[in-house]
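Q: Given only this backbone (258 positions), what sequence would you predict?
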């Protein structure tokens, strides 16, 4: 009888201890890093890469079997599905490193950048991959947008990542309503970014032209731009390619920032 009572008391003490442990459990309270960054592989001919900030791997792709895939972020793609990644403010060496088994983790793109608290950034591998030196250009731009408060308009800016193209101006033409062709940016040089510009929510044909021409060097049709959203239109590829199907043709790639 005493043994049963002792056992019951012991079990009760265990339950109480468990409750007390749960009651005083301390959850993590540290703030998330105060800056954000996203990564793009727009280097023509570049292999798939994983992106790093110093020696911290920022992007990778799962093989589906619990291991890291050797494909990495392929040409034309964005790391982490184009979503911003948290990063602590500070000075960084940002790199794109080969994801494949051969030359695994070899840095092919390197750029130094100072990341400031509360700001958003994008890194672009750009231009053309040199298979002899195993290098490709890269640059970082600040994504200086405000949180939208007007949900009747979209905010759009243009980034130029085509290594053999002159400065380009981005134009838009609405599918319905006012169908006049209007500039969305000033001329943007290679590795440059235009300012965010508001335009009514809608469906648009987008064009990029040289400053001294009315000829469309790049076109993208029926692009939906939603009100209250922020977009970057990135130009990539080889400006000399006229094929409409070649992977390295000049392309306008819309990506939401918010």
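A: Predicted residues:
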């Amino acid at each position: 009888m005493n043994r049963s009572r002792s056992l019951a008391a012991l079990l009760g003490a265990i339950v109480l201890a468990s409750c007390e442990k749960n009651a005083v459990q301390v959850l993590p309270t540290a703030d998330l890093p105060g800056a954000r960054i996203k990564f793009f592989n727009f280097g023509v001919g570049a292999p798939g890469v994983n992106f790093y900030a110093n020696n911290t791997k920022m992007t990778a792709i799962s093989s589906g079997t619990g291991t890291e895939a050797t494909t990495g972020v392929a040409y034309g793609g964005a790391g982490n599905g184009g979503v911003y990644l948290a990063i602590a403010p500070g000075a960084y060496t940002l790199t794109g490193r080969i994801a494949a088994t051969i030359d695994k983790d070899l840095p092919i793109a390197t750029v130094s950048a100072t990341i400031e608290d509360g700001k958003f950034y994008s890194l672009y591998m750009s231009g053309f991959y040199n298979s002899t030196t195993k290098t490709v250009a890269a640059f970082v731009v600040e994504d200086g947008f405000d949180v939208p408060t007007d949900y009747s308009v979209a905010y759009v800016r243009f980034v130029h990542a085509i290594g053999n193209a002159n400065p380009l101006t981005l134009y838009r033409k609405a599918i319905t309503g006012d169908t006049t062709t209007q500039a969305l940016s000033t001329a943007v040089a290679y590795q440059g970014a235009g300012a965010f510009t508001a335009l009514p929510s809608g469906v648009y044909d987008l064009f990029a032209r040289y400053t001294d021409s009315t000829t469309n060097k790049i076109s993208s049709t029926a692009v939906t731009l939603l009100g209250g959203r922020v977009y970057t239109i990135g130009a990539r590829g080889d400006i000399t390619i006229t094929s409409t199907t070649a992977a390295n043709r000049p392309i306008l790639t819309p990506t939401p920032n918010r």
